[in-house]
Design goal:
304 residues; two-stranded antiparallel ribbon; single chain; 1% strand; mainly alpha
């Protein structure tokens, strides 16, 4: 029995889960916006290196104009606006709940595609969207308990501000997915995923340059760069998540159906639970664990 695809997919989840830990730690030190521009810069440099050795070029100038337009818009919405809100949510409510809310990007992207790209879905896939929403709702609507049986574990408050940040990041990711699909799609098939991701990163990087110039925040970035530990955490997170994680996720889909791979990838919120308990010393209720598993089952139905 060949388990190559499953091993690669689980490794993807592991790398993404680790990257979230590094990004959260860095965001707590230097802020979400500084982490994001450092992350995008690092990822962009690594993608240039990968594409050079993979295809012999560092920027896909051969991509058609429509691809550059849609992928750039995807980078602005997803990597720039969406990820700023995502990293703010890390600070506010922690990675476990944030990434669970982010799992809603799959059904929301499906809904947007249904409306604007005329994609069709079966009944059980619509049911999957509803189930995912119910699973996430179980967690974010759970009443905060004042104490836990284990006094060594802390209660992580789920604030409205944190939920709104997460929902904003989720919407950015969902719209980014749809724009990416529109940009990558051609009459002969799909354009290279690595090069497409690089264009998204270029657009986000330009947005950060403009943002830091207009808001005159270059001083805060220079101060952030002096925090060597935070910069190191961000660089490691970039290598693990946007680069290694994306690369392995694409490789996994060569060995297994996309629906199965997507379901395994959606296990990130579940994989974050041990980190929440043992690393961050959080109390995670049975209801929260159940909600995460229900959300994953909903994504399984959606991607079947």
């Amino acid at each position: 029995m060949n388990l190559t695809g499953e091993i690669i997919a689980v490794s993807t989840v592991f790398f993404w889960t680790l990257s979230v830990q590094f990004f959260e730690a860095a965001s707590n030190k230097i802020g979400a916006i500084s982490v994001n521009i450092i992350r995008i810069s690092t990822a962009l440099a690594l993608f240039c290196i990968i594409l050079f050795f993979k295809d012999g070029y560092i920027i896909p100038t051969y991509f058609p104009l429509h691809a550059w337009v849609f992928l750039s818009l995807s980078g602005i919405v997803g990597f720039f606006l969406g990820d700023i809100l995502l990293f703010k949510a890390f600070i506010e409510i922690g990675p476990r709940v944030t990434m669970l809310i982010m799992s809603l990007s799959a059904p929301v992207a499906a809904l947007i595609s249904y409306i604007f790209l005329n994609e069709t879905y079966l009944f059980y896939q619509w049911l999957g969207m509803f189930v995912t929403l119910c699973g996430v709702g179980m967690v974010i609507l759970e009443k905060e308990r004042k104490s836990s049986n284990n006094k060594n574990l802390k209660i992580r408050a789920i604030t409205l501000k944190g939920v709104l940040f997460s929902l904003g990041g989720m919407l950015g990711q969902a719209v980014g997915y749809v724009l990416s699909k529109a940009g990558m799609q051609t009459e002969s098939g799909f354009l290279d995923a690595f090069a497409s991701t690089q264009i998204r990163a270029i657009a986000a990087f330009v947005c950060f340059l403009i943002f830091f110039t207009i808001t005159k925040k270059w001083g805060s970035l220079r101060s952030a760069i002096k925090e060597r530990q935070a910069v190191t955490f961000t660089a490691i997170g970039s290598a693990l998540g946007p680069v290694a994680g994306v690369s392995l996720s694409l490789l996994a889909m060569h060995y297994m159906p996309v629906g199965v791979a997507s379901t395994i990838f959606s296990l990130v919120p579940v994989a974050l639970i041990p980190f929440a308990v043992f690393l961050h010393k959080e109390h995670v209720s049975v209801k929260a664990i159940s909600g995460a598993l229900i959300a994953v089952f909903g994504i399984f139905l959606l991607t079947c």
